[in-house]
Amino acid sequence: MKDVLTGKLVRLAAFDPEEMSKAFTRWNLNSEYQRLSNSDPTRMPSAKRNAKWMEDRVAELSPARYHFSIRTLAEDKLIGELGLDVVDWSGRDAFVGLGIGETEYWGKGYGTDVMNVLLRFAFTEINLRRVTLSVFEYNPRAIRSYEKAGFRHEGYLRNFLNRAGHRWNEIYMGILREEWMGLNTDTAG
Amino acid sequence: MFDIQTQLFESQDVRFAPIDHEKDPEVEARWTHDSEFMRMIDTVPARPMSAALIRKQYEKLEKQVEEDKNLYHFMIRLKADDRLIGKAMIHRIEWTNGNGFIRLGIGMATDQRKGYGTQALRMLLRFAFAELNLYRVSASVPEYNEGAIALLQKFGFVQEVCRRKSLERDGRRWDLYFFGLLNDEWRNQPQAALPKSIGTVVSGVTPQRHEVEG
Amino acid sequence: MKDLFRGELVRFTLEEPETAAKAELRWTHDTELHRLLDGDPAQLFSEKKIREWIEKQSADSSMPERYSFSVRTLAEDQYIGFLGLWVDLIHSEAWVGLGIGEREFWSKGYGTDMMKLCLQYVFTELCLERLSLGVHAYNPRAIRSYEKCGFRLEGRTRGDVLREGRRTDSLWMGILRAEWMQMQNGDRT
Q1: What's the number of domains chain A is made of?
Q2: Is residue B175 part of a domain?
Q3: What residues in C contact A90, CB-CB < 8 Å?
Q4: Which of A114, B55, B87, B162 could form an S-S bond across to B25 if both were Cys, CB 3.0 to 4.6 Å?
Q5: Is A1 inside any structural domain?
């Protein structure tokens, strides 16, 4: 059985609410990070409030929800987090959300590597048939990273966001299992 | 032969032990990050867990052992350094029918291929048959876990059921087998006997991976 | 689109907890019925307890892992039994358990009709890959019914059950989606 949690630069590790809530508080000090991740106006929730909410979700161990921390293979450093939410079981579709909080890891292929690991996990361990994500129009780095991982543009919600005096689209992207398998022919099948 | 002298929880290199709530969660948390291991031992999706979460699970487990009274759970420790190397359990016990399912796993690749799984399974079966007096035990194993299959067969387990294409993993479907061993069958085997004194060399073929699940 | 809940002899419905509890209370006194269905000892529970379980089950039914149906005859609209599904979402497999509490409806094809309706639901609405069940070796009527529906015998766990001083096996049966679809196509020609 293949390893479905390890990539070339990162590995997916446990989401420990205590550790993550502290990290979130730190990352959220960076308004750029917030604006790239969230559509809500930026704010600074306390570490404690984050921790309780996260603790409950993680302890559920629901087959529909997976949370991971992202750690570098080289230094075992915590650099971000990842969530996978199964939206629909008959269609076997899940929504993925990822954020790299440590800005020095932006633009270096870490995002693409995380996504590659996630897709292997989604398609060969959770047995999904498609993965969906949404990304803001003003985040070209992320868009390119997802395109590299095999996601295709599927549409966009027009003028979804209002920020910095401008209206922006929220872009939806998706990848099908067959498409991913076509790109990753080393999978047993 | 009425042997109450030979220890149920001691073998040559390993022993059965209770949970160490302080130290064990870290160790087990590490195993859950090894998806190759987790995919061998369980059919639920591999999911890396924190020590805090494992600690909570241990509490639930001990509560279950106490309340449901249909499961027995053992940590497997290496006698040399008291290190946690695996887990074993008998669960889903139906007392009126005298049956149960076994599960066993050795967590790290460096601890495998050393005969520890064989020793642990030997103890587990003696416990199931000579102490719990079960009529039979079952184990469920995916077809891709050749090591577990070999270990079970070494102890005389018979493949009873082939649940066709019951699992999906790595982009294809796999069969899931049920193996069964009867008390009488176990009793009549040389592997059943534990060494009279610790220190006797235990012979046997060392299998590859001996994670079996029930 | 066909009516998924309507067969030839029966229909699927959901009784109010009060009605269901009263019927199940009566049925628990039929130990032959219990022994055909279950391996655990026959027991008598209060109507109150049974009703609590039914109410809990209704709550559980909203989870995608659990489906419960009550069964009524089409002709007399009589509540005669139940059918339950336990779904493994990850592996796209379900387990089914069913029972006819009203004895005058035994051996008349009602069980087979219930199972056929269930198969249609599992493969065309839940879109699962496999349906499994366990049955006692001493229940040849059920075994025959399941074979008629297309289930194949996959093995026996030896001496699984001890009753009346005798050891009997549990039989394990399964049907794959492709097999069921082939049966449907066969019917149409």
Answers
A1: 1
A2: yes
A3: 125-127
A4: B55
A5: no
